[in-house]
Amino acid sequence: MSKSIARPDRLLVPLDGSAASDRVIPAVVNLASKLSIRVRVLHVFRDIKQMSRMTEGDVDWTADAEPRAFINAPAAIRESCARLNESGIEFEVIGRVGSAANEIVREAEFDPTAWIMMSSQGAGGIRRLFMGSTTTAVVRAAEQPVIMIPSELTDQRVNDLLHRPLISVFLDGSANAETAIQPAAMLAGDLKTQLDVVRVAETMRDSDDRPTPDDDRWEAPEVERVREYLERQGSACADTYGIEVVPVILAGSPAVQLMRYAERARPGLVALATRKRSGIERWTYGSLAEQLVDRMQTPLLLIPVEPVS
Fold first, then answer.
1. Does domain 10-153 have CATH number 3.40.50.620?
2. What mean pLDDT is reported for the chain?
3. What is the rounded CA–CA span in Å between residue 107 and residue 2?
């Protein structure tokens, strides 16, 4: 049984001043204001000289032995921080020195109840997640949930999605995938949104159409088994967090049907389990999670689980 994930009391937001990095700002404003939680902006410098030079002396060292300091916003992220300030969000800025991924994870260790919130990085956007990006390294190493915003999304699209009263969690029947239910339900309770628990029944997997649960081409025993499973998973969190939980059963090719579901339902957030040090958890459907993260234009809540020994 996996341990419960604590409610976030802070959002840790890495910013580097790039357009891709700034894509997370509307989502940060939206979530921080709704949850009434604090924001800590993190900017990572290449070396200590760069931090001293770029901050122009506005440094309040937190420890003599560690290159970590509370700083005024350096030039690289001054405009980004101004956007947060204009939104009325309370935030502070921390500077660290070193590798971006390492320092993001190390900063997160200072506050175990912080959730990391960042955009996919680089020109390739979210499609670099599996090709060695900073985002990949953070997802693999972090102990906390990571909320990831696809850098291809416009600010308006991010705002539209995050105002949707719906969070979805994709399941495959494994204990690892089920780890995503509790934090997704907790967040749904805090935001007063509906939670969809979604699973693809392993029937008609080669079909390109959109069967419904009443379609007589379904294999009834499998559909009923999936229905009972989703109702069982949803009932506990519905009572605990006071939310409406809706089981959603799909049939056909898992990747195709889950993508179609996301396009049709347009959830504000999709929760998936991730395996620490191994990246996105591989479901019983092989590389399904990788396909979803690579293609879905939806904010993601990535929940870390311990790898199976």
1. yes
2. 80
3. 24
- Comparing 263 with 255, the larger pLDDT belongs to 263
Nearest 5 degrees, angle CA 120-CA 275-CA 107?
60
Over residues 145-197, the pLDDT tens digits come to 999 888 777 777 777 777 778 999 999 888 888 999 999 999 999 999 999 99
Q: What is this structure's pTM?
A: 0.84
Q: What is the signed CA dihedral for 91, 93, 94, 95, rounded to 10 degrees?
A: 160
What is each CA distance from 125 to 9, 133, 281, in whole angstroms?
A: 28, 10, 20
In DSSP terms, which residues pair with 286 in a beta bridge? 283
Q: How confident is the model at residue 55 (pLDDT cuts 50, 70, 90)?
A: low
Token pair in block for residue 161: 């999605």
Residue with the larger pLDDT of the pair 242 and 66? 242
CA dist list (Å): 43 to 11, 49, 55, 81, 307: 14, 14, 11, 11, 30
The structural domains of the chain, with segments of one domain joined by +, span: 10-153, 164-305
CA 198 to the chain's CA centroid: 17
Domains 10-153 and 164-305 share a fold: yes
Are the C-beta atoms of residues 20 and 125 closer than 8 Å to each other?
yes
Residue 255 in tokens: 């990747």
Q: Distance between CA atoms of 76 and 82, rounded to whole angstroms?
A: 12
pLDDT digits (tens, 9 = 90+) for 215-245: 544 556 678 888 899 999 999 889 899 999 9
CATH architecture of residue range(s) 164-305: 3-Layer(aba) Sandwich (3.40)
Q: Which residue, among 154, 196, 144, 193, has the nearest Cα to 20 in the 3D structure? A: 154
